Amino acid sequence: MSVPGIVHSTLDGEEITTRVSLGSDDELFITPTRTIVYRADGLLSDESADEFPHDADRLTLSEGRRKTKFTLEYALDGDRSFAVPAEKTDDVLHPVLAGVLDGNEITGPGEAIVRTYRFSELTLTITSNRLVKQIGGAVWDEDYEEYHFDDVTKLAFEDGSVAIQIVLTVNERPQRIKVPNEEASDIRERLQRALFAYHGVSSLAEFNSVVGDAEDVETGTGRSVDFGGGVDPLGGGGMGDGQMANSEPSRATENEFAQSSDASSAPNQGENEEEFAETASFLGKATDVDASITDETFGGEPGPESVTGAPETDPELLERLEALEAAVERQSDIIERQQGTIDKLIAELRQGR
């Protein structure tokens, strides 16, 4: 298919990577560095070819019933826009966003854009190497978040009545992303395919086993509680005769939870501090009970832990720790929603509303 002469003259030797028909004879051309919007001769306008460089600071969409306006914001040149028929929105967004991500050096050479999803104030872009998340009115700006597949050690999906939650463990921290059920199957399949291909595995179980467990072993990121060097969880053999220092482990544990509580400044902090305090109190009681087991209790014979080693972590303790994790995740969700509201307010102020 031939390229219009006016477009060919603007290429400067660049290759056209994508072209999208906009209806009639109008077309959109994508090169590695820019988007070219071609308008054919019409009754009210002459033939034209407008260029939009991909090094924009922000990309936003304004969708109407018949047309969608794409706006690219530049540090020096300000805002520049072009409109496409509403039914062509997704066809145009995919290559334009891919060009902007590449133009801002977010994606690397040879990195393919798999799919872009828009859910109200959330935009997700899956590439062959990473997941890019954008919260707010913009499809992309400098406040984006990215999760490179190198850093992902576990993937899970939590089903809900109206949405699923994607749970990515990135750099040992869970990242939760909610997507509506209508798109759940598609995004689950595409994300898994990209992640599995990157790591050379073929299933979710294999990925979590090969990548997740290996990372846990190397970094010691399991659910066990670290009580410091030389002290076994909830007491252990070798500290018989009731000589375990009850107050020291209890105070150390309470200090650890106090520091964790101080680190949080999000809403519901009081509720979380109460959960921290309850858990610290539980740990102190568990230490007191362990210290009360003396040689007299076992008739002068060594206690069970000196024979069998440290007991397994108490299920109630695990339950409390999981409650703490849930509290932290709730705080993260609240902060994320607040950021989305702030971004939306900023976008409206910029538009002069």
Features:
4-stranded antiparallel β-sheet; 38% helix; single chain; PH-domain like; alpha+beta; elongated; 15 strands; 353 residues
Distance between the termini: 44 Å
**CATH class value of the domain at 1-105:** Mainly Beta
The level of helicity is 25-40%
What's the overall average pLDDT, rounded? 77
Topology summary:
Layout: H1 5-8, E1 18-23, E2 26-30, E3 34-39, E4 48-53, E5 58-63, E6 67-74, E7 78-85, H2 89-103, E8 113-119, E9 122-127, E10 130-135, E11 140-141, E12 145-148, E13 152-158, E14 163-170, E15 173-180, H3 181-199, H4 204-219, H5 247-262, H6 269-291, H7 304-308, H8 315-350
Antiparallel strand pairs: 1-2, 2-3, 3-4, 5-6, 5-11, 6-7, 8-9, 9-10, 10-12, 13-14, 14-15
Summed up, what is this model?
The chain has 353 residues and is an alpha+beta fold. The protein has eight helices and 15 strands.
